[in-house]
Amino acid sequence: MAVGVDPRATTSGASPTSGSGRSGIAVVSMLVCAAVLARFADPVRIGWLRNLLVVFGSLLVESTPFIMLGAAVSAAIEVFVPSSAFEKIGRLHPALQMPAAAAAGVAFPVCECGSVPVARRLAAKGLAPSAAVTFMLAAPIVNPVVVASTFVAYRGRSDLWVMVIGRFTLGFIVAMAVGWVVGRVRAGEFLRARDVDTEAHEVRQDEPRWARFFGHLTGDVVFMARFLILGAAIAAAVQTFVPQSIVDRVASLPVLSLVAMMALAFLMSLCSESDAFVAASFVSFGPAAQLAFLVAGPMVDTKLSALYVGTYERGFLRVVILAVGATTLVATMWVQVVFG
Amino acid sequence: MTHWSHPRVAAGLVLAAWAGLFWFLLASGRTMLYLSARTAWLIPCGAVIVTIAAIGRLASARVADPEPLGRRETWSLGVVVLPVVIMLALPPVTLGAYAVGRRSSFSAATLGASARIVSGPIDFVDIAASQTTKEGQAALRARAGEVVTLEGFVTIEAGDGPDEFRLTRFIITCCVADATIAQVRVVGAPPGSVVSDGWVSVTGRLYPLGNDVLIAANGTPREIPVPDNPYLTP
Q: Which end of chain B is more exposed for a tag (fewer CB within 10 A), N or C?
């Protein structure tokens, strides 16, 4: 069992504990400064800062329970499900793995933040990258909670079933298409390696199962939380400085309206369980543009981008953005041709 | 012989800090500053889940050969706990006039001609919904001239007269990030009687004018504290 030692501390001649001790003091000082500034400098009297802090806090408070849930499922898979179960699935032809992975999303009622740690763990356990990605992208759209919220948001409208069935179907198809594109990489080149010392701190194989479960759970949460915080900060900044009215100008333009709604979904970083209500408020856009918003948003947005960068190898984010954008655009253009 | 593992204790304490934030939001009633009535259940659920995770990590924090806490790991944990510190230190705060110019208007076709617009007490959700459907607009027009009381915060737009302002509420479905606006124009208020971002209660006669809804104020708008539930949920 490797024992983690901070290499920078040892090479500089200082003991590891003195290096981390200084860092600890610096971190505590930073936190105290932040608390004093937040409490006594009255930052909320500045309009944009107040807006940014409220949206940032709101995104974090809403996402954290789902990240916890996703990490708990991920830890349970690691500790309680034998690798052989995934090896069997991994031996299936990818043409069978991907629809099965997308269909599995129906039984996983969490938003997009929760599906990332689960997909990471599935890939680490031997599931083909194509299937893991298909699951990750499909689950936040095809699960029953999101189907129900889309139904409620569009209830009473003439395009109710276009939106509900269209979102489910396009979510399924786009997830598989992107999974197929991403699946061309080898499993070893897919996941970003975690720090060896961090992994060693989290879990030891000679520990009881419950301790390993909490080790993996904590490790995943702390790992994901950094990227979630970064993504939430960027999304809050975008919501603070970019007025939503700028996209209204392209509402009547056939292809640009689809691209604009995908871009808006990317910037707003809404939860897939609530985005239908926001999409429904864009009454100047047709059903195709609203579907573009509802399909692309839960698959890739500002908040998720930070999570993807932290979870997957370099280049993954670029491929996902291009693949999701292209397939959603083509699919919704067909919807636009048929339904306007 | 086992000893405390510093990385595990630190990670457990970070989770405990997050659990503390969720319990604080629950106990202080600040849930509604971030989430809607539909998603408020996330706070107690989050509090319980994170607390269990923190206890589990701390309970497994004693090991035979403890490792030191690396510098990079220390900073990572600091970043994760930073939002907790900021949210705990901030006073209660809501979206305000700054956000109004950056948000879309609320639309809910299903509420267009709801029973409340036809005969019940009117609130901002009904008014906003009536602005997006013909049925709702007609139902509200039938009640033109009725006296209503609405509570919201003040926004003043360029071009508003000295006795005019907009009374605004945000409507959220899940969290503040999905906020949309509902707004009426108030006229006949004594000049200088309101300040931007201040919360007021306005009583006056309601006049729908196309997509605009106008309230002719009866006297001076009454200042009120920020309500416990500042956002509306459809």
A: N
